[in-house]
Amino acid sequence: MHTYKMIDLNILIDYKFDRFYQDNIEAYLTMDQPTHFIYTHLVDEIIEPKLALTHQTNKRSFYEDDQYRYVVYHNADKEPLTLIKRSKDLTHYDIYLNQHKQAPLDGIEYSIHQMVFMEIAIEN
Question: 99-106: long-range contacts (C-beta < 8 A, 24 or more apart)?
């Protein structure tokens, strides 16, 4: 877990797989305090939030409470595979990956991190 200075933001990234990060982002390392946080969690099961559904598509369910927005991604059998929990101020992201029902996890983690980074960049 390290903090990286990108687009004048200090983003702490807790990644689980080195494949796409190692030897690619060291130039951005900073000792400055992070302003944004991206955490990856590998879990055995994704539990959908016990909140009112705010929107639903074929493969995604959306929820929110006072502090967070949640997106749950499902497979074709409607099993939850990934949960993204993000603060409404777009500073904290927790990405939960079911480590048994999807692959390759390193590519999935990296792709989601890139989407999160783009959201942070657009909003700041």
Answer: 99/42, 99/43, 99/44, 100/44, 101/75, 102/75, 105/16, 105/17, 105/42, 106/16, 106/17, 106/19, 106/20
| Contact present, 35 and 60 (Cβ < 8 Å) | no
Q: What is the mean pLDDT of the chain?
A: 94
Residues 87/101, Cβ–Cβ less than 8 Å? no
Range of the domain at 32: 2-123
> What tens digit of pLDDT does each residue of 81-95 get?
999 999 999 999 999
Structural contact between residues 49 and 70, judged by C-beta atoms closer than 8 angstroms: yes
Confidence check: pLDDT of 7 > 90: no
- How far apart are the C-alpha atoms of 103 and 50, rounded to whole Å? 27
- pTM of this prediction? 0.92
Number of domain units in the chain:
1
32: part of which helix (H) or strand (E)?
none
Q: Which two tokens stand for residue 112?
A: 């989601």
